[in-house]
Amino acid sequence: MKFLLTLSFFFFVQAVSGQTAIKGIVKDSKGESIPGVNIYIKGTYDGTTSELDGSYLLETTETGKQVIVFQYMGFKTQEEEVELNGGEIQLSPTLRETINEMSAVTITAGAMEASDEKRAVVLRPLDIVTVPSAMGDIIGAFQTLPGTSNVGNDGRLFVRGGDASETAIFIDGLMVGNAFGTTASNVPTRTRFNPNLFKGSFFSTGGYSAEFGNAMSSALALNSVDIPARTQGDLSLMSVGLGYSQTLVGKNNSLTATANYFDLNPYQHIVKQNFDWERGPFGVDGQVSLRQKIGKNGMAKGFFHTESGGMKIWQKVPGQEGRGQLVDLRNHYSFGQGSFKQTLANDWSMYGGLAFSYNVDEYNVAPFEIKNTNQIVHGKVAAVKGFSDRFSLKTGTEVFQFSYRESLKSEGLEREYSDAQVNVFSEADYYFSNSLIMRAGLRVAHTSLTGQSWVDPRFSLAYKFKHEGQVSIAAGKFSQPVVETLRVVAPESSNTRASHLLLNYFLDKNGRTIRAEAFYKDYVNLLTYQGERFLYRDIEQNGEGFAKGFDLFYRDRKSFKNTDFWVTYSFVDSKRIFANFTQMVQPGFAPRHNASVVVKHFVPKLKSQLGASFAFNDGYAYTNPNLPGEMNAKTPSFQDLSISWSYLPKPNLIIHLACSNVLGRDNIFGYQFSPIPNENGVYESLPIRQTAPRFIFLGIFLTLSKDKTANNLNNL
Amino acid sequence: MKNSILTIAFLLASMVSIVASNDAYVQAMQKALTNMRSAASVEDLKKSANAFARIAEMNTSEWLPDYYAALTYANMGFRSQGSLAEKDEFYAQAKKHIQKADAISPNNSEIVAVQGFITMGELAADPQSRGQHLSGEAMQLFGKAISLNRQNPRAIVMMAQMEYGMAQFFGQGPEKACGLLNSSLELFAKEEASKVEGSIEPRWGKSMAEEMKQICK
Fold it and tell me: Gene3D superfamilies from the entry (chain A) (predicted)?
């Protein structure tokens, strides 16, 4: 025992006397010194930190073979083996940069992201809901972003000279069919989904990833909220309806059930309308959404939405006296999906799901009774493998089942088609450095209806400058089947296709965002035909077209206190041979000059957010049969000034008041012409106008929760 | 007999070494804490954070080293005069360490309070765009920290700060915030009275409460 003690004492003394000094300078691969590096001897408490000039001095009493660790965020941890035997050791390592998710370059060509978590975002989810002209509709907010056109008699999303069918909408990666409510012609529609369902969105106006198919011009991916913060009830009372939502939150799961009722009838009786309503739009909808955490990082989601509604409207017929034609419309819609994502070992992750959309439209336009049924089933599984911090590969497969049937019940006529489409996509991301990334992808697909197979390559490259601005290019081919109403008549038609080329500059710094993008897009395989809906004939697939232009976006949250504003200008030069046109024309849905301004100002004293938005375009092209040629006329410019006022008297109460087109401008979106000239040889016309001079929205939103900190701010 | 003596000797020796390594841990922590408290700049804090990170590497079953590393990074974020990206980088490091601490010691009121503190930092870095979604998150974390330990003055004083901000936003009086502040001050006093020299337990946050006193006069 005594011997042991002596022995250990001996060793102790030995250790103290042999002190080694390790010194040097830590540099990066560019030769610049790195301060703040954590330098230590593995398995001991001995360590130090590099100084501002990268130099360090580490003194230790350890002896023998030891490992010195150099550790610094943003760099690969480096280990150096040394022999410590007293005296001095010089050690000046060069640390290798790792790819830093927080500051590395991102591909911004075509993309506009709204998120709370990520960088390079253009909007926050909250910003979307508070755009005054949007009236709580997600799409209304996107219409203030670059690359979009406001088509006021339609309401859907029109991107860069493309029609509304060219934008595909996804929820948690799965396609949504009939995302917009069914409506009568020239009566604008809205998205079926409440903005509060989503925590973020990815909106691309071109050049998007190989992950997105069946979209020729644009992809809008909406990401639903994960587990909500707390158990609460949300009550909404609006000038056009009411709703209640109950959320139950457990430790690893949640359930939200929502029911809404809306009816524009009472409102339309109070406020004068341009349209002749027999029965204002009405509807009921219900949603259930379920969330379950799987393990540490995984999540499974279930979402079910169902709704039913309708409207009855008298539509005047040009050249005829009286109220015109009565359109009686009923719609039934269901959307359901289950999705999952899971992080696995060895830098693998997986996600996917299954979704179905089922839409039934019933039109009664005397003497016809029409019923259309559209169903889309979409299944998807994708896996991502990170081979290193620089290289990752995403591979997935998707199956779509498209079924469509339209029937003329009164005549006993019916036609339909069904198509199964199989897709495989693969895409690689490679970081050359923190400032240069390349993405290359391929999408291969096959359709059962025509037996056609196709390949869509995609490519993008982005470079980040020292000043944090970044430039990206993107190119690719994009395909989608012909719209249902034509495909049912011409099921043999192949895909319509577009090619995109984009050049983008993006800078987001100190609360200001600048984005500029130039684009070129061409179209092939567009359909041309004679006649109109239900009576198409002479269908051919030799149409083509192009769209080129640029857009500018500036957002500033910094320059004025409590004020956030953005300004957008989009120039689109688009021509195509399509529909019943015989030559290249500017489509009616593609105005050349488009601009918008959105301003939001918070007044703490009034506990209020005041907003205004102004939208402009130079008018819509239309064909006047009284003049020679096609698309030979243009409407006056479109202008809309909307304002809103959100008042928060208490943390759990919001009162929101908004008014569109405050100035009451009589915007005209085109004209309807009588198919035959009158006795004077003139084709008589009726302007296509707005639903009403103005739309006024009043809503009261109340959150009920045991948790006193609960507030409605998220719903603002 | 010989065997049992050897066993005893071995046991004693290993006990000594456990005590010794534990001593080394406490000593290293004490030294790092002293340096942290006297840190005058972001660079000094970086040295402390590195020191805590080193201790964490050595003691993978102790939550305090990662806890203090996280706290130090959060303080760097608050003190930094740099860009938003730089602040976010500090908070990202803070989150990394607090997650490790949380994995070692789940449902620990002190750890949850620092999670809230980090969220508060991220909020303060860009209140205009983060205020709305992060204020709720921060309050929820402080609420959880308080429910885990009603005697945690740090969680209570930070909750008081959030409550005060909320009340200001909605033009309400500071009564609720001040009530919380007072109970935190009492708890801080209690904590100080029971202070053990060289303790490495969390004891920070009193200055926060002292500063807030002005409001509640």
Answer: Carboxypeptidase-like, regulatory domain (2.60.40.1120)
Query: Does residue A282 sit in the same domain as residue A313?
Result: yes
Residue B193 C-alpha, separation from nearest chain A C-alpha, in angstroms: 32
Same structural domain for residues A119 and A72?
no
The reply to whether A320 touches chain B by the CB within 8 Å rule is no
User: By the CB < 8 Å criterion, does B139 face chain A?
Assistant: yes
Domain assignment of residue A70, given as a range: 19-95
- What would the pLDDT profile of A460-487 be if each residue is shown by its tens digit? 999 999 888 999 999 999 999 999 999 9
Say yes or no: A509 and A482 in one domain.
yes
pLDDT digits 0-9 by tens, B128-168: 777 777 888 899 899 999 999 999 999 999 999 999 988 88
Q: Is A388 helix (H, G, I), strand (E, B) or coil?
A: coil
pLDDT of residue A362: 96
- Coil, strand or helix at A509: strand
- Assigned domain for A304 exists: yes
ipTM: 0.85
On whether any CB of chain B is under 8 Å from the CB of A535, the answer is: no
The number of C-beta contacts closer than 8 angstroms across A and B is: 88
d(CA A635, CA A618): 8
What's at A549, amino acid-wise?
G
Beta bridge partners of A333: A307, A359
Residue A4 forms contact with B (CB below 8 Å): yes
Instruction: Name all domains of chain B by residue range, CATH numbers in brackets.
Output: 14-106 (1.25.40), 109-217 (1.25.40)
* A129 in B contact zone (CB under 8 Å): no
Instruction: Please say which residue of A40, A70, A95 terminates a domain.
Output: A95
Query: Residues A297, A333: one domain?
Result: yes
User: How far, in Å, are A112, A160, A168, A549, A617 from residue A164 at the CA level?
Assistant: 18, 10, 9, 19, 17
Same domain, A145 and A190: yes
Q: CA A649 to CA A610: how far, in whole Å? A: 14
